[in-house]
Fold each of these.
Amino acid sequence: LKKKISSFMSKSVSIITIANHVNMSHTTVSRALNNSPLVKKSTKDQINKVAKELGYRTNFNAKALVSRKTFVIGIYLTELNLGTSPIFLSSIVNSVKFSLPNGYTLSVDTIKNAQKDRVIENHKIDSALVVSQSVEDDKFIKLLEKEKFPAVILNRNIQKTELINFSIDEYSGVVKILEYAIKLGHKNFGLIKGPSFFESSFFRSKAFFDTMAKHNLNVYDYFVTVGDYSVGSGYRAAQQFINKKTLPSIIFSSNDDMAIGAMKAFNETGLSFPKDISIIGFDDMKYSNFITPGLSTVRKPIGVLVKDGMEAIVKLLNKKNVGETKRILEAAPIIRNSIMDLRK
């Protein structure tokens, strides 16, 4: 019964109800509830307090009609299936939810679908959080820039853009963890690449080969395989290594999912980590510390990246100064038990 009364009261309380309680015009109350700069802070506080006590709830459908807003924030990725880990995607969505403004909902889709549905031209969203993984996304990014649309580009470092762009220095993170392995005495390295159309795969592979060249270490062609960032592709890549007469002492897998798949394949042949072969991943997904042995990897601070992006979007929606528009976060090596110390 209490729930029904509360529900009835929240529906029946209007701006006029609040205006009568505070003895002010409904225009002042409306402005205060919409955080208008035309109303003093003390007045806003008084009105918001009374609104809360009366159980007033904003009618976002009506507000959308008046303000011409959709109250939808679009999250767009290059891919949702091939190359995008479900855990990576869920990490992004969960991080966004913590920073989502009151009354807003999310729309998650690919950049291709966003272009096809003309979400920007048709004003289907109020702002966009673009998790770019490929140069193929640049057409959509240029459209956002041209339309001066409130958007934040995450993940990739876009060289020439006026949009807010937060990215991660993946290259340096790979170099650091590989040089750590070299200090432990490793000389024979294997590589499991990611999908070629992902820019992250390019930089992680480049960091690998640059580090090998810097330390005068040869990489045999048969110690390099290609996956698609999925667990299954890591499993198949490891089987290709197993079919060779010799194995590298250590493998760098371009993401944790492929590393997990590779570990399963090697375990099935009786090989153990890190005694028989060492392995390194990338991303530092939540499960990486809970497998045996714990996976040494490079931590990609996706939670921090998304949080920073959402904070910028909220400021854009409220027409506030965002401040720093370009930021590159560090990807840090995380050392666990999957790398053998060959100096002993």
Amino acid sequence: MSIGESAITIPPAPEFMLTALDVEKGEPVHPLDRLQIMSADAWEVFTLEFVSYLGKGYESVTRCAGAGDKGRDVIAKYAMGWDNYQCKHYKDKLSVANVVAELGKLVYYTWRGDYTLPREYRFVSPKGCSSDCIDMLAKKSRIKAEIIKRWDKACKDKITKTESIPLEGTLLDYLNALDFSFVDEMSSHELIEKHALTPYHTTRFGSYHLKRPQVRKPESSAVGDNEKVYIDALLDAFSDADGAEYSFDSVMDTEYKDDFERARINFFSAESLEMFSRDAFPTGCYEKLKGECHEGVHSVVRKKFDDGYQRFLEVSTHCVKIPYDSHPLRHFLQTSDRKGLCHQLVNDLKFKWIKK
């Protein structure tokens, strides 16, 4: 072997168990890295997404895009005021000069009376703030000093294109009276944490972070209000098979007990998946899943059977074979969910086991 050359060893095997998602997509791009490749417009929409779900009692959240926003990007209004989320998507970290330029607009337009001071003013940037900027935001009294020192260069001729705004007279008095304790930044980690609480997160970053909770077991002695329709339909299907009358209690002593208990387990599983979907996926995602299930079993439901019980069995057998390859929830689907979807469709009155 020549000098400077070394043998290449075989890379070690992965320390985790591979899933279909791992093989299809490879190692996921970390959300913090994805933040860096967003366009400026996408960055504002990203901010709009998580601000809408901050849970601070906002009555409305709007985006001020383009020229004339007067230093406001994402405005969150509540009963007694508003918060501003200032979106800055620069190639470098936010500097003191960047922050001063934006706060200069805030000072000028609130002094002029175009809008009131916000309750909170947060800088939102994928790369965060420089160390000097962080120090300034931590020591609020320094903010005012930096604005005064940098006004002529960063603000005087840059707030508007139509006039020069010297820092003097009542404007200077107004600035000196301000307390900038409401100004701060949101770190990249905080942004990801807050955005992960929204149903938009999987659309932007994938399902890397999602863990489906354990399914709650149905109570053996009670039927929930959301179970009555599909349970009555199932009991009717049993009755249709042998002519006997069945109730929640009496069916437990018959050959249908296992069908009945599994139906409830499957329904609860699907209900759990629906709740999981509402928290983690965009609106309407689960309804589309039910729509695909309905389409998949429709022709089987339409077939002629001797009784409703036979229709229930055939549909239950067929529904587990339906491919959901293009649906966002496919990696979380279990066999119980697939069967439970059919009971949800019965609950929605999409079909019955007995054709009247």
Amino acid sequence: MSVRKPFHITGAGCVLTRRGGRLVAYRDGELRASAPVSMVGEIVLTGQVTVTTPALHLALRHGIPLVILTGSGRPLGRLEPPTAPHIQTRVRQLDLHRDPAVRLAIGSAIVAGKIHNQGVLLRRRARRSLDEDAVWSTVARLSEFEEAAGRAESVPSLLGVEGAAAGAYFGAIRRLVVPGHGFTTRDRAGRDVVNQLLNYCSALLRETVTSALLAAGLDPYLSFLHTPGRGRPTLAFDMVEEWRPVLLESTVLALLGLRAVTPDDLVDGRLSPRATAAVVERFHTRLTAPARTLPTPPGAPSYGDVLRHQALRLRAHLLDPTRPYEPFRWR
């Protein structure tokens, strides 16, 4: 059975329409992208993209959601076709969300997995850093933070461990970025190319995780680590954490290392359409690459396959707490 994939359309002036059973995108009358509807898992629109009514009807009839992002990658909304929700799973999810012990257990697993994966990324790239000793020192500190995450006695204290680990981690990331990119610290409002790349990749990752959660029958707005809030898919925020080093920071570092995106690609502090297209291509190349995980599953699943399996693993844990939730652990 073929795996449905996201269909990305980026940039002002693009028009999404249908031709028979295909979704097609044009800009200035020129064909830019085309895919049979049977192969599309979701449509991701970045910037001022026009969608015709026939294309909209075709997508929704085939159960394909539309994700709408600003030109800078900030999520604006998501149009979902009507579905039959997994009521039993969502009721169970709500019940366990109210249990502080369950929230702490799931949150601790997620944070420990995230910190482990941060350490793996730094170990892989230490030799190429501007200060190898400092990076290895951070790896050692992250090991301590990973252990502390397992000992946290409350979600607030766990978030404190996560924040301290993130501060150390991005201090080391700064040493992996070639000077001249203007990156000093992780700042979602930062106008430098590194922070803009991190923001845009974060939006792509969040929507990928949201789709996996919905496919697993989970409510993406009802979380365990983050505090639920109106309009915030906080369960997606939870699951994104363990994947950030694997799919987000690694993608950004690859783009910078290959000079696929440079500071010249910023227009008024935002990524240019050419840059966002490069980000989408690299992100999905990463998503379809064979996963390196502990333990190694049979066959050769991609990172996208394993991510979707993680959503199912969380669902299995909620329905049967004797099956512990194990985070994705990179190797």
